[in-house]
């Protein structure tokens, strides 16, 4: 960096019998800053001075007798001031310049999130938008990221009492009840690349919109510019990338898929259908209470104003509804031992990913018989009701008595083996699942 030389310096008038008064020092600093600005050097009201420039430092800061006494002649003072200017210019050349800039920016750097800048109004800076693949005018509030961090990265406070811990198995810092990992005192991620979550979500949502250029949207415009719902091919990225497989353009299409999912979920199956943002009352204006779950984890109320939701708010509602933190891929994100254990448990308990299993059965890749065998752990209630006399799919109860079922399972040795070896039950299970696929 080439600095221009300050060509002149006019000594300031001596105003007291002390070496340099407070008022005089402030006037001098302002004068020096003005000269430096003319030379193309950025400054602040307080310029850090190097320890080696002792005389310069003393000149600018001392309130007591020093080398620049009022007894000095103007010629002596001008000589010393010229020397101070020279030393300051030497100081402002590299490598000292980088240290100055670091100190000058220290105050602003305090208001950051994971290294990204935050403006005076609490919104993330352009560096975050760039990393997240968002347009430069997007305003994502830091409080949203703080709450996401608290939800997914910071360990929860549901600790297991020490006297109860003896009933569970501890492995890699996670307590287990049989095969079930317990969430107590755990988090989902050791490290979460939140920018990648926003990047994934924006890349998914933007192509679905007929118009994603408006700053705010009314409920009518949501119906006009966005589909009612979508379905992905997986719950999370535990087995690879997640792909969009279905778009429900009308509310009628979506409601039909959601109604079907009520029956599927009973058998640990899922067609993946979800509202695009959340379940909204399409006959009334948008209100923050519509997104109450989003607000707890994402502060979505900051994006709702006068019965409208901003484009940023829609993106955040999409992140929340679609579980984007578990679908986005990033080498910077590190899953916790608990999250990895939970994904393994799902594979074991549900016989794999419930959405992938549904698609595989529907497409004839996975037989219902093989599915029942792989997911018998979570479908034992089906055998329980079969044993109680429910021999046809239409006789399945609307409400399952969990307490009686658990007592029966606990008192029935080798219940799973009995179910798998019961030919009549396996035929019944196959017909029951086939009837709702």
TrEMBL record:
InterPro entries: Cj0814-like (IPR058078). NCBIfam families: flg_dep_Cj0814 (NF046095). This is Lipoprotein.
């Amino acid at each position: 960096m080439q600095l221009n030389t300050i060509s002149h310096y006019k000594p300031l008038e001596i105003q007291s019998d002390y070496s340099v008064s407070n008022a005089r020092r402030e006037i001098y600093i302002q004068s020096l800053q003005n000269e430096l600005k003319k030379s193309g050097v950025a400054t602040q009201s307080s310029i850090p001075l190097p320890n080696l420039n002792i005389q310069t430092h003393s000149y600018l800061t001392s309130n007591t007798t020093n080398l620049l006494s009022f007894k000095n002649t103007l010629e002596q003072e001008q000589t010393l001031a010229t020397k101070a200017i020279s030393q300051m210019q030497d100081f402002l050349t590299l490598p000292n310049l980088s240290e100055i800039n670091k100190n000058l920016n220290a105050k602003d750097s305090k208001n950051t999130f994971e290294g990204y800048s935050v403006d005076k109004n609490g919104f993330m800076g352009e560096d975050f938008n760039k990393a997240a693949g968002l347009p430069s005018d997007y305003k994502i509030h830091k409080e949203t990221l703080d709450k996401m961090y608290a939800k997914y990265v910071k360990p929860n406070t549901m600790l297991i009492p020490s006297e109860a811990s003896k009933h569970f198995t501890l492995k890699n810092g996670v307590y287990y009840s049989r095969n079930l990992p317990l969430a107590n005192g755990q988090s989902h991620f050791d490290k979460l690349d939140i920018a990648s979550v926003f990047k994934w979500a924006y890349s998914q949502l933007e192509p679905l919109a007929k118009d994603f250029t408006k700053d705010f949207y009314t409920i009518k415009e949501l119906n006009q510019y966005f589909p009612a719902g979508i379905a992905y091919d997986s719950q999370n990225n535990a087995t690879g990338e997640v792909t969009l497989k279905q778009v429900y353009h009308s509310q009628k299409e979506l409601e039909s898929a959601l109604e079907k999912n009520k029956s599927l979920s009973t058998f640990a199956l899922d067609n993946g259908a979800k509202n695009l943002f959340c379940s909204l009352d399409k006959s009334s204006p948008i209100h923050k209470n519509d997104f109450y779950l989003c607000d707890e984890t994402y502060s979505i109320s900051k994006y709702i104003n006068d019965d409208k939701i901003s484009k940023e708010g829609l993106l955040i509602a999409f992140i929340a509804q679609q579980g984007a933190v578990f679908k986005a891929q990033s080498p910077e994100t590190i899953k916790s031992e608990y999250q990895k254990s939970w994904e393994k448990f799902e594979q074991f308990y549900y016989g794999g990913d419930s959405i992938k299993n549904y698609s595989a059965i529907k497409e004839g890749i996975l037989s219902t018989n093989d599915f029942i065998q792989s997911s018998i752990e979570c479908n034992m209630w089906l055998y329980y009701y079969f044993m109680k006399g429910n021999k046809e799919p239409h006789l399945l109860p609307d409400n399952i008595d969990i307490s009686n079922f658990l007592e029966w399972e606990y008192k029935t040795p080798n219940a799973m083996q009995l179910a798998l070896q019961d030919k009549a039950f396996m035929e019944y299970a196959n017909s029951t699942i086939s009837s709702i696929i």
